[in-house]
Amino acid sequence: MTHNDTATTSIGLLAGKIIFITGASRGIGAAAAHLFAQEGASVVLAARSRDALDRIVTEIRDGGGTADAVTVDLAVPDSIRAGVTRVRELHGRLDGAFNNGGIMQQQAGPVDGATDADVDEQYAVNFRSHLIAMNAEFALMRESGGGAIVNTSSIGARRANPLLPVYGAMKRALNSVTESAAVSWAKDGVRVNGITPGGTATELMQEWDEASPGVIEASAASSPMGRLAEPREVAEAAAWLLSDRASMVTGAIVPVDGGAGA
């Protein structure tokens, strides 16, 4: 099978689960959409680009999977809540959520060069959106006895990030709220974990390399594996955390970086 194949020939890791994915129009989110459907989940895909979402939904349905799309702007709190409400309308419950949407810091450089616009945008999309989504997802999951949430953070949250300091700070804040939610919601049967991808071969990475030539080469060189991750490799980690096989895992921030952060 190629990474776009979504037919389920056996009981999958996520069989029967309803899973909501943000940032699903490209990169890791798109790879997750295909993978989760292949593993038996019914997926609801959220992003701003409806055309891209509709294309992925068609690919999944053509492969025998179940998928729907909802347009969501992560910078707008009510839009996020409406996305989760759409999951309720479609399926009546939510078993898993992969909060993967995010944006790169527009102006790379040291802390003293961070603009007000960058700070506001990074806060809104890379931190606040996840918190709002988590709260809405938790409320729906609790109604049906539990579920699992996975947040996409970054290797940039694990150490100093002098070129993307605001991005790294918001991702580190996301790690903290992920851990706090895990402790708070464990009694309700909702697990919350995060992943910290390293350099990954996504459109976002390509855009960063075009703005700052050499980023991809440096990222690959910093990995003991000597390469970038493929989006599906990152999605595989999220799939496991969302599955029942990770039933005792909550509050974990899992590196998916080829050893770059070791």
What this model shows, in words?
- The chain is of the alpha/beta class and 262 residues long.
- It has one domain: 3-Layer(aba) Sandwich (Rossmann fold), CATH 3.40.50.720.
- It contains eight helices and seven strands, in the order βαβαβαβαβαβαααβ.
- It has helices spanning 27-38, 50-62, 77-91, 116-143, 165-185, 203-211, 215-222, 231-242; strands at residues 18-22, 42-47, 66-71, 96-99, 147-152, 190-197, 253-256.
- It has a seven-stranded parallel sheet with strand order 3-2-1-4-5-6-7, with helices on both faces.
- Helix 5 (165-185) links the parallel strand 5 and strand 6 (190-197).
- Helix 3 packs parallel to helix 4 (116-143).
- It is globular, with a radius of gyration of 17 Å.
- The relative contact order is 0.14.
CATH topology: Rossmann fold
What is the count of distinct domains? 1
E-strand count: 7
Shape: globular
What is the helix content? 40-55%
Q: Return the structural class.
A: alpha/beta
Round the Cα radius of gyration to an integer and report it.
17 Å
Poorly predicted parts? 1-9
Jot down its keywords.
alpha/beta, 7 strands, disordered N terminus, 262 residues, Rossmann fold
Would you kindly provide a brief summary of this structure?
By secondary structure, the chain is α/β, with parallel strands linked by helices. Helix content is 45%, strand content 15%.
